[in-house]
Amino acid sequence: MKQKNKDAIVKERILNNAESLFAQKGFRGVTVREIINAANCNLSAVNYYFGNKKNLYLEVFRARLIPRSQSMCERFKKFLGQRQPSDSPAAVVEALAQAFLEGPLSDDERRCHYQLMVREMSQPGEAFDLVFEHVMQPLLQDLSRRLRLVITEEIEEERLILNIESILGMIIHFNYFRSVITRFTGHAYDSSFKKRLIEHIIDFSLYGLGVGKKEVLT
Amino acid sequence: MKQKNKDAIVKERILNNAESLFAQKGFRGVTVREIINAANCNLSAVNYYFGNKKNLYLEVFRARLIPRSQSMCERFKKFLGQRQPSDSPAAVVEALAQAFLEGPLSDDERRCHYQLMVREMSQPGEAFDLVFEHVMQPLLQDLSRRLRLVITEEIEEERLILNIESILGMIIHFNYFRSVITRFTGHAYDSSFKKRLIEHIIDFSLYGLGVGKKEVLT
DNA sequence: GTCTATAGCAGGATAGAC
DNA sequence: GTCTATCCTGCTATAGAC
User: Residue B66 CA to D17 C1' — how many Å?
Assistant: First the structure.
């Protein structure tokens, strides 16, 4: 552990705990006092390092959510690169689902991540532009470009966007509604159930209800 | 307008405004003062009619969200009954998408509805059980039963659940992430764009990316 | 049933000692 | 940089007049 000075460590602790709490309860649902209790530091530390509560909130997005998002996108590219062949729609969807469901994050991080994202996307707040510009926009453009390369037929831009949003909708749904999914299927989100989910997302993305045909890849 | 006594009216006004505000900002994000300002009534009215803030919150679910959910399900059944033929997967998905995207609600009501639902589903709170039992559970069972009737092949229960959740995921996504979808497609959620979305949901639910084939029903 | 007034407390933020 | 002490605003909830 590096600990050149203690500053960074306290600051990091505040950021980590703030993220987790904001994700669970939203901006107004969390008090600064809760955060500093979790981070085991003094009340004034928040104002010292971040100025005020709102700025701490924004910093959570800048310093945690956005970098993590980028690392998930990296992972997506890496997965796709490893795949043979990597130039089918199935490969793109598989890499995407894998990166976002199993990706480089711990389960706690993933929970945080989606909660913060979803909160901000539905009720555009101050972090919305940040997330939109640095997360959604690049992801959609990347996916759009890649899919266009591997889909043989002509496809109009709007339709492509709706397709991509449908796949993302599923991925978000299965990450975000865990309690519901768990209650319906009886499965906890362990490694084997996640594989099952990824398989399902690929299958459904390619063939939907697959009226008349079935049974796919890996 | 019926107004036998003023009680009901004040109570209704509080409920309506509370719902809208809770949907936008969550339980802790809203103050009772905000609500009574919007409802144009006195501070104590909330305690008089509902006891306390938390109970008002729960009452919003009991008296507004759940009945509305049921009316959307009614609408779904009605749509399905009108359809000829009504015994294909396409008909079921179409009726579902139509009920949930265009259904019997105003756009404001729909926004409220999904925001409250999603909030409660991700972070199981006190209203979770209410919503799960009266909304999610019956809907899933109904859909499961109906789809099983119209899907010709054998399909295991778990796979059916995942399929249904995928479709619901899309519907929720397109309702809930409006700001994002609007920014990407350039379309506001007017009647013609909603029709486009419904068409897309049917198409994608049946054929996914439709690798190799395309072009569907109504 | 509806209002005013207020109790009682928790929140964010800051000043100033160390 | 970190802490304690404190300010002041704004919250929920209630008591009690009308």
Answer: 39
